[in-house]
Design brief:
The structure holds two protein chains of two kinds. By secondary structure, chain A is of the alpha+beta class. Chain A is built from eleven helices and ten strands. Chain A has a seven-stranded mixed beta sheet. Chain A has a two-stranded antiparallel sheet with strand order 9-10. In chain A, strand 4 and strand 5 form a beta hairpin. By secondary structure, chain B is an alpha+beta fold. Helix content of chain B is 46%, strand content 15%. A four-stranded mixed beta sheet of chain B has the order 2-5-6-9. The two termini of chain B are 40 Å apart. Classes of the chains: A alpha+beta, B alpha+beta. At the A-B interface, strand 1, helix 4, helix 7, strand 10 and helix 8 of A face strand 1, helix 1, helix 3, helix 7 and helix 8 of B. Strand 1 of chain A pairs antiparallel with strand 1 of chain B, so a sheet runs across the interface.
Chain lengths: 320, 390
């Protein structure tokens, strides 16, 4: 039986994450120039990076379902990719390195390989490790193995470098599936937050003597965003439930989640700008961050074309 | 958020699976609407009823098994897996997916005891009498009149005169869920009454309308002083709007459950066809759209489970209904593109080209996509009503 309601414990985790991020990562921080310096420490103290790890490995002993709840919130609050990278790094590392990552004393930054031997690094500055997205695998590299130079980052809240990074067989590595699930959760969070910002604006912005949300041209777009956000959240949650309780069926559900969430986040964030009109085109309004972050997260997982091909290559899901 | 693998559920699934393996008809449902198609639907319904599978969730007293929703979903999944006849476009869709649930919620004991077993046994097909020529999306504008006549020799009754339209299965239906205006001075959603109309009553004339897919299963229905006994009123005189809204919440909510499961299963047929035909070598646009609908169909099923888990108000059903309706059209359009010249035969590959034509109805029936977006915008997101919607 598939039950997508939250258990009491899951509800506590979801609410706890929401409150934690409200306090330590309010969206307004992005406009004022990203001040995420203390964020890792606060998250680590809360147990964020080890939520899905076994107690014996220094984690909280929960599973992919609970991790997913954290990353739905992480998407809404636009937590930097280094948070995602550190969670994933803790999963595939061991010993003192893992202990340091879990405690917040050590940070991983996200990196992704592009065409040829080009690679891109995100927020490497204070990171000791790189969590490298390399197609169907993720790798954990020492940060100093990357040699590169800064570029004009697509997402200005992320310090972006381009350079070279040759994979080394000795680096810890793992399959990409859990990373895809968490990225899909962040994208679903973005789709939901964009939808809510747009509806809220449509309720209050007055033109032609009434709230613009009264016009069907706007109302129907808002409804469309709500549908896509609902679909993305539902698919991410079912994928997370499978990843926790029926891992054999999880790959199909996770691929469906990432394909769905990539499209939903892209459409919702872009449409939210349109619904905001002129103010949506300004840096004053938070919506542009969702557009930019959607592209960054999509790039980490190889983009929608790669994920669509991967989904289509999978066999049909079997009834339990 | 969990997948519970309970041993009892597994036993139930195995029981369902074995029964379906032995009982799913080997012949396919006729493509053309008509008596043969109706008889096929009746035969399949009877077989389920006789096998003890009349309904998974309806109360035992009315011929169901009285089991929880989770078991009902297992039944739908196993039906899709076994290639059983679909609930979509089936002659019993109205009876099973909205008339029955509405009677269970609002009917009298006598109405339930009479009608529910007859639906499950395949004795009664139902149709819906809501839309009128002047009342489509604006349902509250209905003008078909029911005049109260009390103290007659043949009992108290309503005399109904007017016209309904877009009435699927009216030619074959024994009963109709009929919404009429019983207070002549009333406006809009006041003064309406929901009645069970016996389609064999004198004064009813049914005229089939040919639809764009060639079907003749939806009709105009004319009422000329049709007598309907007061015992056929559901929910009380003047309470029709509430009963109708409750019915629509079933039509836009739980009725999506089997359809969502069938839709996901149909997409897998297309994936298989795509591989067999090696279409990926031909056009990456088809591959991209196929992957996209595969993800959206998976999400549609997930949305059903999320809807159930959240147990929220009826407006959330419109979210699932809207996604379902729009996705259904995308899927059959993709099938048509994949088929290329083969699509010149309407009935090829299980009738995808015919389905493409038939699926135009999905974003019109049960509330157009535009009406669903109004509902989502106003009732779920709290956006203000526009000047044109009173």
């Amino acid at each position: 039986m598939i039950d997508l309601s939250l258990s009491d414990e899951q509800r506590q985790i979801a609410d706890g994450a929401q409150n934690l991020l409200q306090e330590h990562a309010p969206l307004a921080r992005l406009r004022d120039g990203a001040a995420d310096a203390d964020l890792h420490t606060a998250l680590a103290a809360w147990g964020w990076f080890g939520t899905g790890l076994k107690v014996a490995d220094g984690g909280l002993g929960l599973g992919p379902a609970e991790d997913t709840l954290l990353y739905l919130a992480a998407g809404r609050f636009l937590l930097p990719p280094s948070v995602l990278a550190t969670s994933l790094a803790a999963r595939i590392s061991s010993g003192e390195r893992r202990t340091a990552l879990l405690s917040g004393n050590r940070k991983a930054a996200a990196a992704v390989r592009g065409n040829g031997d080009a690679a891109f690094c995100l927020d490497r500055a204070s990171a000791a490790d790189l969590l490298v997205f390399g197609g169907e695998r993720i790798w954990l590299a020492p940060a100093d193995r990357f040699v590169g130079e800064p570029v004009a980052g697509f997402d200005e809240t992320i310090f972006t470098e381009t350079g070279k990074l040759e994979p080394d067989a000795s680096w810890p590595q793992g399959p990409v599936d859990h990373a895809l699930l968490l990225v899909a959760a962040m994208l679903a969070g973005i789709a939901a937050a964009s939808s809510e910002l747009a509806a809220e604006y449509a309720k209050h912005r007055q033109q032609f003597g009434q709230a613009i949300g009264a016009f069907q041209a706007i109302k129907h777009l808002c409804a469309e965003l709500a549908v896509r956000a609902y679909a993305a959240e539902a698919q991410v949650k079912i994928a997370a439930a499978y990843a926790s309780d029926d891992p054999a069926s999880a790959p199909f559900q996770i691929r469906a989640a990432i394909v769905n969430a990539l499209a939903a986040a892209r459409f919702n964030a872009a449409t939210a700008i349109q619904i905001h009109g002129g103010i949506g085109f300004t840096a004053e309004c938070a919506v542009h961050h969702y557009v930019k972050r959607t592209h960054v997260l999509g790039a980490l997982v190889g983009g929608i074309g790669h994920q669509q091909a991967a989904l289509l290559a999978l066999p049909s899901p079997v009834s339990p | 958020m969990r997948i519970l693998q309970a041993a009892e559920d597994e036993l139930f699934r195995q029981e369902v699976r074995s029964w379906l393996e032995a009982n799913v008809p080997s012949d396919k449902r006729p493509h053309e609407t008509g008596d043969a198609q109706r008889d096929y639907d009746i035969a399949w319904r009877r077989r389920q009823f006789d096998g003890g599978w009349g309904h998974i969730a309806w109360p035992v007293a009315y011929g169901g098994k009285g089991l929880p929703l989770a078991r009902q979903l297992i039944w739908f999944e196993e039906c899709a897996r076994a290639g059983a006849p679909e609930t979509t476009g089936n002659s019993f869709f109205v009876a099973l997916q909205h008339a029955g649930p509405t009677l269970i919620a609002h009917g009298t004991d006598a109405q339930k005891a009479f009608h529910l077993p007859r639906i499950l046994s395949g004795e009664s097909i139902w149709c819906q009498g809501f839309s009128e020529p002047g009342a489509g999306s604006d349902l509250a504008a209905i003008s078909t009149r029911g005049t109260l006549q009390l103290g007659q020799l043949d009992g108290d009754h309503l005399v109904v005169t007017g016209q309904k339209i877009w009435t699927s299965y009216a030619l074959y239906a024994s009963y109709q869920e009929l919404l009429i205006r019983t207070d002549a001075s009333s406006q809009r959603h006041h003064g309406l009454t929901f009645v069970i109309c016996d389609m064999s009553s004198p004064g009813i004339e049914v005229r089939p309308i040919r639809n764009i897919a060639g079907g003749r299963d939806f009709c105009e229905v004319f009422y000329d002083e049709v007598k309907i006994p007061l015992s056929a009123v559901v929910g009380g005189l003047g309470a029709g709007w509430n009963v109708a809204m409750s019915l629509l919440s079933f039509e836009r909510g739980a009725a999506s459950f089997p359809v969502a499961i069938e839709t996901a299963s149909r997409v897998e047929q297309l994936v298989a066809y795509f591989r067999e035909s090696q279409l990926d070598a031909e056009c990456s646009a088809l591959a991209s759209e196929l992957a996209s609908v595969r993800a959206d169909a998976a999400a549609l099923k997930a949305m059903v489970y999320l809807l159930i888990a959240r147990d929220a108000g009826p407006a959330e059903g419109s979210i699932v209904r809207l996604h379902l309706a729009e996705l259904t059209k995308r899927i059959s359009a993709l099938a048509l593109d994949m088929l290329g010249a083969h699509g010149l035969d309407r009935n090829v590959l299980g009738g995808w080209p015919r389905r493409y034509l038939d699926d135009f109805k999905t974003t019109i029936a049960a509330g157009t996509s535009q009406i669903q977006r109004n509902i989502i915008g106003e009732r779920l997101l709290g956006l203000p009503k526009g000047a044109q919607a009173r």
